[in-house]
C-alpha cells in the first residue's frame, strides 16, 4: 500500500457517498425518509422496486431508453468509422473546417433547440419513435465518436493499409477484416462514450417522445403526484438507472484501461 | 503523411448528412424566430434586430451570463487540476486499475435529472446525509434552499462529483501511453518529480487534456438539467445560469423571439470561446 493511493481512495469514497444515499433510500418507505435522518433503512422494504417491476408504465420506460440508446450507439459508431478514417488518412477540401464544425454541434444550448427539434421531427413523422431520439442524439455523439476514433486510427501505422492493398485486399475487406480489429479498443471506447451521453441526456429524449417511446426519465416525473413526492419510489427508479451503465462499464473496463493507451488519443 | 484525396468526402458524407439534419434545420428555425414577432396562431411579423438589441442591453442577460462564466471558470479551475492529480496518483497496473476506473466512471452514467434529484435529497438539512451531517454534527448552518452561498457550493460540488472523473479518465489515458523508457531516462538524469511532470507527463497529456478541457467547457456552459432539478435557479435568481434563464423566457413566458435571439448570442459566445481554446491549445501542433 503506497501513501499516494490515499488520493484515489478518498476520491472514490466521495463519489460513492451520494450513490449510497440513493440506494439506501430506495429501501426505505417514503414516510421513513420524510420522518428524519437515518443512516440505514429502519424498516427495510422492497415495495418500491416491486412497483417498478410490476407496473408496465414503469418498466417500459427502461426498455424504451435501452432501445434508443442502443440504436444511437450503433448508428453513431457505424457512420463515424469511415469518416474518422477519412480524417485520419486523407487531406481533402475543407477537412479541418469540417472537423471543427462537427465539434461545434456540442455547443448549441439543447434547452432552446428542444422546440425546433420537436417541430422538425413532427414534420418528418418520426415524433414519439425510438428512431427520433436515436437520430437526435447523433447530433452530439457522432462528433465525439469521430474525434475519439480519429485519435485511435492515427496510432495505426499507414504501412498497414499499404501492405494490405499490395496483398490485393479490396478496401471494404481490408476495413472490415484488418483495420477495425486493429482499432477495436477505440471502437469500444467510442461506443462507451456514445452510450453514456445518450443514456444520460433527457431533455431531447423527453421532448421527442410522448407515449410509445417515453424514456425512463420522463416516467420518473410521475413520482411527484398530487399526494406529494414519493421519494422512495424516486430513489428506487434512480438506482435502477445506474445499473445498465454499470453493466456497460463492466464489459468495457479493459478497453477503457488498456484501450486508451493504444491510441495516440 | 496524409495523401490528398477528394473522394474521402464520400466517407464523411453520412456523418455530414446526419449532423446537418439535426443541426442546420433547427438552427434555421431559431434564426427565423429571432427576427420575428408573433401573437400566436402562427402569424409572424418581421421584427428585425430588435430582439438582439433588447437582449444585449438587458441587465437580466448580463447577470445570467456573469453567473454562467463564474460557474464555468470555477469548475474548470477545480476539476482540471484535481483530475490530473488523481490520475497521477492512480495505480498503473494490476487488479485495482479496472476497479478504480469502473467506480470512477459511475457518476457519469447516471441520468442528469437523477443526479439533480439525488443531490437535492442528499443535501436537505434534516433528512439528507450531507445536510444532516453539516447542520447537526458539525453545527454549520447550511441550507441551499435559503442561502445563495450554500446553493453555489452545492452546485459546484455536484458538478465536481459528476464530472471530475472525465478529466481523470482522459488524463490517465494520456499517462499510461507514456513509454517506460521516458521515465528511465528521467531517472538516469536525476530529474525531480516536478520536472518529470512538467517535461514528460504534462506534454504527453496535452492532446487528451485539450479534449477534456473543451468538453468540460462546452458541457458546463450549456448545463441545464442538473442545476435546474437541484435548485430550480434559486434561491431568488442566485443560481439561474444562462440556459435556465433562457428556458424561463422561452417556455415560461413563451417569448420565442427574445429566447431565440438570446440563444444565438449564447451560441456565438460558446463558439468563440471554444475556438479560442482550440486554437490556443493546438497551435503548436500546426507548426
UniProtKB/TrEMBL annotation, chain A:
<feature type="domain" description="ABC transmembrane type-1">
    <location>
        <begin position="62"/>
        <end position="252"/>
    </location>
</feature>
<dbReference type="GO" id="GO:0055085">
    <property type="term" value="P:transmembrane transport"/>
</dbReference>
<dbReference type="InterPro" id="IPR050901">
    <property type="entry name" value="BP-dep_ABC_trans_perm"/>
</dbReference>
<keyword id="KW-1133">Transmembrane helix</keyword>
<dbReference type="InterPro" id="IPR000515">
    <property type="entry name" value="MetI-like"/>
</dbReference>
<dbReference type="GO" id="GO:0005886">
    <property type="term" value="C:plasma membrane"/>
</dbReference>
<protein>
    <submittedName>
        <fullName>Carbohydrate ABC transporter membrane protein 2 (CUT1 family)</fullName>
    </submittedName>
</protein>
<feature type="transmembrane region" description="Helical">
    <location>
        <begin position="130"/>
        <end position="153"/>
    </location>
</feature>
<comment type="similarity">
    <text>Belongs to the binding-protein-dependent transport system permease family.</text>
</comment>
<feature type="transmembrane region" description="Helical">
    <location>
        <begin position="174"/>
        <end position="200"/>
    </location>
</feature>
<keyword id="KW-1003">Cell membrane</keyword>
<dbReference type="Pfam" id="PF00528">
    <property type="entry name" value="BPD_transp_1"/>
</dbReference>
<keyword id="KW-0812">Transmembrane</keyword>
<dbReference type="InterPro" id="IPR035906">
    <property type="entry name" value="MetI-like_sf"/>
</dbReference>
<feature type="transmembrane region" description="Helical">
    <location>
        <begin position="99"/>
        <end position="118"/>
    </location>
</feature>
<feature type="transmembrane region" description="Helical">
    <location>
        <begin position="7"/>
        <end position="27"/>
    </location>
</feature>
<feature type="transmembrane region" description="Helical">
    <location>
        <begin position="66"/>
        <end position="87"/>
    </location>
</feature>
<keyword id="KW-0472">Membrane</keyword>
<feature type="transmembrane region" description="Helical">
    <location>
        <begin position="231"/>
        <end position="252"/>
    </location>
</feature>
<keyword id="KW-0813">Transport</keyword>
TrEMBL record, chain B:
<dbReference type="InterPro" id="IPR000515">
    <property type="entry name" value="MetI-like"/>
</dbReference>
<dbReference type="InterPro" id="IPR052730">
    <property type="entry name" value="Sugar_ABC_transporter"/>
</dbReference>
<feature type="transmembrane region" description="Helical">
    <location>
        <begin position="95"/>
        <end position="112"/>
    </location>
</feature>
<feature type="transmembrane region" description="Helical">
    <location>
        <begin position="149"/>
        <end position="173"/>
    </location>
</feature>
<dbReference type="GO" id="GO:0005886">
    <property type="term" value="C:plasma membrane"/>
</dbReference>
<feature type="domain" description="ABC transmembrane type-1">
    <location>
        <begin position="65"/>
        <end position="277"/>
    </location>
</feature>
<dbReference type="Pfam" id="PF00528">
    <property type="entry name" value="BPD_transp_1"/>
</dbReference>
<dbReference type="GO" id="GO:0055085">
    <property type="term" value="P:transmembrane transport"/>
</dbReference>
<comment type="similarity">
    <text>Belongs to the binding-protein-dependent transport system permease family.</text>
</comment>
<keyword id="KW-1133">Transmembrane helix</keyword>
<feature type="transmembrane region" description="Helical">
    <location>
        <begin position="260"/>
        <end position="281"/>
    </location>
</feature>
<feature type="transmembrane region" description="Helical">
    <location>
        <begin position="69"/>
        <end position="88"/>
    </location>
</feature>
<dbReference type="InterPro" id="IPR035906">
    <property type="entry name" value="MetI-like_sf"/>
</dbReference>
<keyword id="KW-0812">Transmembrane</keyword>
<feature type="transmembrane region" description="Helical">
    <location>
        <begin position="9"/>
        <end position="35"/>
    </location>
</feature>
<feature type="transmembrane region" description="Helical">
    <location>
        <begin position="118"/>
        <end position="137"/>
    </location>
</feature>
<protein>
    <submittedName>
        <fullName>Carbohydrate ABC transporter membrane protein 1 (CUT1 family)</fullName>
    </submittedName>
</protein>
<keyword id="KW-0472">Membrane</keyword>
<keyword id="KW-0813">Transport</keyword>
Amino acid at each position: 500500500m503506497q501513501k499516494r493511493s490515499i488520493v484515489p481512495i478518498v476520491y472514490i469514497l466521495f463519489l460513492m457517498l451520494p450513490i449510497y444515499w440513493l440506494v439506501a433510500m430506495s429501501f426505505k418507505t417514503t414516510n421513513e425518509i420524510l420522518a428524519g435522518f437515518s443512516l440505514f433503512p429502519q424498516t427495510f422494504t422492497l415495495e418500491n422496486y416491486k412497483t417498478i417491476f410490476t407496473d408496465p408504465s414503469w418498466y417500459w420506460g427502461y426498455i424504451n431508453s435501452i432501445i434508443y440508446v442502443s440504436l444511437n450507439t450503433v448508428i453513431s459508431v457505424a457512420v463515424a468509422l469511415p469518416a474518422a478514417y477519412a480524417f485520419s488518412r486523407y487531406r481533402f477540401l475543407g477537412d479541418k473546417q469540417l472537423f471543427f464544425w462537427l465539434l461545434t454541434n456540442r455547443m448549441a444550448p439543447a434547452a432552446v433547440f428542444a422546440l425546433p427539434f420537436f417541430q422538425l421531427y413532427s414534420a418528418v413523422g418520426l415524433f414519439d419513435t425510438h428512431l427520433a431520439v436515436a437520430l437526435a442524439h447523433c447530433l452530439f455523439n457522432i462528433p465525439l465518436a469521430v474525434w475519439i476514433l480519429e485519435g485511435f486510427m492515427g496510432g495505426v501505422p499507414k504501412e498497414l493499409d499499404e501492405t494490405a492493398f499490395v496483398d490485393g485486399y479490396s478496401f471494404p475487406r481490408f476495413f472490415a477484416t484488418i483495420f477495425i480489429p486493429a482499432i477495436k479498443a477505440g471502437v469500444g471506447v467510442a461506443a462507451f462514450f456514445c452510450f453514456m451521453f445518450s443514456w444520460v441526456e433527457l431533455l431531447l429524449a423527453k421532448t421527442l417522445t410522448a407515449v410509445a417511446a417515453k424514456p425512463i426519465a420522463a416516467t420518473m416525473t410521475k413520482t411527484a403526484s398530487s399526494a406529494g413526492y414519493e421519494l422512495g419510489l424516486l430513489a428506487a427508479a434512480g438506482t435502477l438507472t445506474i445499473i445498465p451503465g454499470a453493466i456497460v462499464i463492466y464489459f468495457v473496463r479493459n478497453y477503457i484501461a488498456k484501450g486508451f493507451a493504444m491510441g495516440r488519443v | 503523411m496524409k495523401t490528398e484525396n477528394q473522394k474521402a468526402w464520400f466517407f464523411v458524407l453520412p456523418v455530414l448528412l446526419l449532423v446537418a439534419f439535426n443541426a442546420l434545420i433547427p438552427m434555421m428555425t431559431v434564426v427565423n424566430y429571432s427576427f420575428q414577432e408573433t401573437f400566436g396562431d402562427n402569424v409572424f411579423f418581421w421584427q428585425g434586430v430588435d430582439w438582439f438589441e433588447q437582449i444585449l442591453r438587458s441587465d437580466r442577460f448580463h447577470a445570467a451570463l456573469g453567473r454562467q462564466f463564474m460557474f464555468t471558470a470555477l469548475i474548470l479551475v477545480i476539476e482540471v487540476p484535481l483530475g490530473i492529480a488523481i490520475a497521477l496518483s492512480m495505480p498503473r497496473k494490476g487488479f485495482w486499475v479496472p476497479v478504480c476506473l469502473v467506480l470512477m466512471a459511475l457518476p457519469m452514467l447516471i441520468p442528469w435529472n437523477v443526479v439533480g434529484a439525488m443531490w437535492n435529497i442528499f443535501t436537505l438539512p434534516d433528512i439528507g446525509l450531507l445536510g444532516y451531517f453539516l447542520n447537526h454534527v458539525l453545527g454549520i448552518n447550511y441550507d441551499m434552499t435559503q442561502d445563495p452561498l450554500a446553493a453555489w457550493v452545492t452546485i459546484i460540488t455536484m458538478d465536481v462529483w459528476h464530472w471530475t472523473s472525465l478529466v481523470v479518465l482522459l488524463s490517465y489515458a494520456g499517462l499510461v501511453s507514456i513509454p517506460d523508457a521516458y521515465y528511465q531516462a528521467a531517472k538516469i538524469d536525476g530529474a525531480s518529480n516536478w520536472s518529470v511532470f512538467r517535461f514528460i507527463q504534462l506534454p504527453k497529456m496535452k492532446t487528451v487534456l485539450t479534449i477534456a478541457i473543451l468538453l468540460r467547457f462546452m458541457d458546463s456552459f450549456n448545463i441545464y438539467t442538473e442545476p435546474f432539478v437541484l435548485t430550480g435557479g434559486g434561491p431568488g435568481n442566485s443560481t439561474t445560469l444562462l440556459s435556465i434563464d433562457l428556458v424561463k423566457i422561452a417556455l415560461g413566458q413563451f417569448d420565442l423571439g427574445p429566447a431565440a435571439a438570446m440563444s444565438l448570442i449564447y451560441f456565438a459566445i460558446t463558439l468563440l470561446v471554444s475556438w479560442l481554446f482550440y486554437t490556443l491549445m493546438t497551435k503548436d501542433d500546426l507548426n
